[in-house]
Amino acid sequence: MKLHVTSFLLVTLFYYNICLVGSSGLHEVFTWTRITFVDPDSQFYRPRHAAISNKNRFTYSGGDAVVFPDDVPVSSTSTMPSLDINAEDSNLEYIYENNVPMGANRWKNKLFITIPRRRLGVPSTLNYVPIDKPERHNVPLIPYPDLKTNAVKAPADQEHIVSAYRVAIDACDRLWVADSGVVETLGNQTQLGQQKIVIIDLNTDKIIKTYRFKDSDLTHATVLTMSVVDVTADNCDDAYAYFPDLAGFGLVVYSLKQDDSWRVKHNYFYLEPQAGEFRIGGIPFQWNDGIFSAALTDVLEDGSRDVIFHAMAGTHLYSVSTKILKDKELATRSYHHDDFKVLGDRGRGSQTSASDLHKSSGVLFLAMVNQNAVGCWNTNKPFDPKNFDIVQRNDTTMIYPADLKISGDDIIVLTNTMPVFLYSFLDYDEVNFRVWMNEVKVAVKGTNCDN
């Protein structure tokens, strides 16, 4: 696949191109008014009205609260006293208002859902729901690989994941987590551990690698919420992972084979000041997030790939070859010459959180937060208005697409109404969180991205 670059500014590209004829778009596959949890192996809590079979498995039959063994429900923040992160039972605390899903990804019959600990009261940060079950609404999340691994606090010899925003799944059936190690509270952050990579073998549900980032990889402002893994199924040991640092304005590269990491710096990783204005869910605000997401092309003739990336507070797309990123000496040099390319300006209102590329078709999907929409560009065609389009937009049901993944030939999008959560109040009697899916070829049918 070859990326075509032009200097044409797409000033009105996404902002006005919102009405499609013949587009199939995306379908809601899971919805939640609020998030609850269930763990078949836990002695600590279970959903109200859950029945326990002779095989000690839970059968969910409704209810919306996590309860402890004495069946006393844990109430919401309106009646629950302030929580103490140092309390002995902090691993079990649950406040449903503070559980906002941020990431979604799929492996076989598991749909992984991450809930970063942006507030206290999140029992488990890495979870899944079974896709092959008929339940689709308010399905409780199952901690993955277990509740113990998701403990806020753990003994020094116990591996655990403090806070995960999104996860990557590679061609070798491995799940990659960037753990921030931080529990956030209003006006405060508690660093409970080093920022690290956790790799889990999905076939065994076991942690097979933990790598703690070096001080030289990070800044005082570093936030690693997204990752993309560069590997082929026939060479699993030689994997590279790329972690955008949205607040530190950099890119961290990790080599599994070398067991080493390094930080890449470039001006294209910064925010674009004119693109920091957002209005989502009727709420105006400013964000200054830099490089937020990166997507990999298919393998090129020389064996490399291109990485397409962008800032959240930005409207341009950029690219760089993995030949540069994989070479520590080249990646960390102070001047990059023409290593980095400007692909073009997507235009007003096109600020994007997550993006991913369907490699076989060359279609890049963009989670456009300022438009409550999913957009697309066929990268086999020039960077031109006629080759961009909107896959789906809805100002009521698609408020804030927080994550977007390509899984096989399917697109997965999670919307979570997060700005309303941050700056106002969610109505927990209404659907707030959704996961959308469809086949890529069906989703883009009738759009300018259709091959």
What does this structure look like?
It is built from 5 helices and 32 strands. It has one domain: Neuraminidase (6 Propeller). Residues 6-22 and 43-82 have low confidence and may be disordered. By secondary structure, the chain is mainly beta. The protein is globular and about 55 Å long. The strands form 10 sheets. Strands 1-32-31-30 form a 4-stranded antiparallel sheet. The protein has a 4-stranded antiparallel sheet with strand order 6-7-8-9, with no helix packed on it. It has a 4-stranded antiparallel sheet with strand order 10-11-14-15, with no helix packed on it.
Structural features:
451 residues, four-stranded antiparallel beta sheet, 32 strands, 36% strand, signal
